[in-house]
Amino acid sequence: MRERGVLLGLGGLVLGIVGGERAGPGSATGLLAVAVAALAAAWFVSGRARLAVAVVALALLGGAQTQRALHGQARSPLSSAIARHESQTFAGVVVDDPQSGAFDTDAFVRVAVGGTHRTLYAVATGDDALRLRVLEAGDRIVLTGRLGPLHPDAFDGRARWRHAVGRLDRVQLLALEPARGALRLANSLRDVVLRGTAPLTPASRALLAGFLLGDTRAIPPDVVLAYRNSGLSHLLAVSGENVAFTLALFGPLLRRLDLGPRTIGAVVIVLLFATMTRFEPSVLRASALSVIALGASFVGRPASSLRALALAIIVLLAVDPFLLHSVAFWLSCGASAGIATLAGPLRSRLPGPMWLRSPLSVSLAAQVGVTPVLLATFGTVPVVTPLANLLAAPAAEAVGVYGMLASAVGGLTPRFAPVLQTPSAALVAWVTTVARAGAAVGIEMDQRTAWLALSAGCALAAAAVARRGRRGRSGGGRPAVPVGPAR
Question: The dihedral of CA 87, 89, 94, 98: what is its sign?
């Protein structure tokens, strides 16, 4: 019942976000106040009334937050300057690590303007691109460039859903100051891990950075294509397993603390790791899920995996409704939902030993979860993906566990790094070999084939249930009569 209620709440929030987009920009202050009041009122009612009030409140909250986010873009203090293509100088903070193309480098920069802040999509070329390329998230910079509207192409469209209000072209970097506070600590820890990967070849080093930190910027295009065409791209995104292992590393220290300090310490570690991995959509999902699980354990009310996942999605979408347009976010959520709902039943029904059934069930469950998102976004799904995941996932998990430890130790003691990273290189090479072999198969399933496979699967499941029912009736239709000793 609780799971159904949370899922209904999530559905209401999503409908509210879609409605807010259709309604368009607006301050929505009154709507937001009504939504908050309705959420508060839900605590004072019970039963179905509470569920109904909570669903309506979340729908109103989603609509209000979306309208406010759109209003911040449409009515920004930079609107007139963007329309006139003015050249201006800004002080700001780099939101994410810059991305480099063949001829330019781009970054999202949150700039101060008119007593508030707005995000610009900054693009530099030539020597200025080289200067922008070395920046890190959290760096404080002064830059100049020419303002303009976002282009109507796909990438600038994605920039819009990252809250960018416009472009800043012909960027020149004028001043630089390193990040402060938690961001500076996270960048220092990140640099230690990346420094520990130095003995590897450039391609292996780039892949290891992807496995450990989700940083795929330096991976060669042909390798990226192989992982994508084999359905293994998700291995290069930080997941809940990375967060769990990070917590496990600090487990001996955390276990020495009482429950309250231990929970606070665990939450701080999760947030610091999320900062190291740049709060990518999959990181946001994994971090929010971990924090909710920690909070539930602290209050003594552990939640099921599906309920905790739905709560995490509700929190994230309520804070940033634009995540609804992130394919990476929904792929991460789909994989987690598939594992939470299907991995257990599949594990109990698949034939074979447990060491084979366990990873296979997780792989198949995750694939079922992400397939609708892949079909809706790309139109096809590689058929070889379940087998490729079965072969590659154990090695990828080992990379996440051993590779992080080896990279951290190697970054602190560079002389031991070559020896420590030898197993990491072998594991990365194996996963890449599986990816290339899977991509070479080249057989994909389109939407029509997917519906056909789903129909066949439902028919087989119905037949299995009917057969089990017939066996039950034939074997247990008449109770056995006990035979006692003769008198």
Answer: positive
Which helix (H) or strand (E) covers residue 271, if one does?
Answer: helix 259-276
pLDDT digits (tens, 9 = 90+) for 145-171: 999 999 877 677 789 999 999 999 999
pLDDT tens for residues 330-389?
988 998 999 889 888 888 888 888 877 887 888 888 888 888 888 888 888 888 888 898
CB-based burial of residue 23 (10 Å sphere; 0-12 exposed, 13-18 middle, 19+ buried)? middle
The one-letter code for the residue type at 216 is: T
Which residue type does 17 have? I
Residue among 51, 27, 47, 28 nearest 39 (CA): 51
pLDDT tens, position by position, 271-313: 998 898 888 888 889 899 989 988 888 887 777 888 999 999 9
Instruction: Kindly give, in sequence order, each residue whose CB lies less than 8 Å from that of residue 6, ignoring residues fewer than 6 positions away.
Output: 307, 310, 311, 314
Give phi and psi for 160, each to the nearest 5: -60, -40
**Cα distances (angstroms) measured from residue 21 to each of 63, 67, 245:** 8, 7, 38
CA 215 to CA 84: how far, in whole Å?
36
Torsion of CA 403, 329, 7, 243, to 10 degrees: 20
Q: Quick check: helix, strand or coil at residue 218?
A: coil
Alpha-carbon distance of 436 to 229, in angstroms, equals: 9
How far apart (Å, rounded) are the C-alpha atoms in residues 109 and 141?
Answer: 9
Kindly state the tokens that stand for 15: 């409908």
- The 3-state DSSP class for residue 164 equals strand
**Tokens coding 462:** 């119905």
CA distances from 175 to 117, 131, 132, 138, 168 (A): 19, 11, 11, 14, 16
Which residues does 195 contact at the CB level (< 8 Å), separation at least 6? 410, 411, 414
Task: Identify whether the C-beta of residue 98 lies closer than 8 Å to the C-beta of residue 136.
Answer: no
**Under 8 Å CB-to-CB from 30, ≥6 apart: which residues?**
none
Query: What CA–CA distances, in Å, run from 131 to 139, 167, 198, 395?
Result: 13, 18, 22, 36
Residues 27 and 69: beta-carbon distance below 8 Å: no
CA nearest 28: which of 39, 15, 17, 43? 17
Radius of gyration (C-alpha) of the chain in whole angstroms: 26
For residue 384, which amino acid is it?
A: V
Least confident of 127-136, 225-234, 465-474: 465-474
Q: Residues with Cβ < 8 Å from 432, sequence gap 6 or more?
A: 207, 223, 226, 227
pTM of the model: 0.87
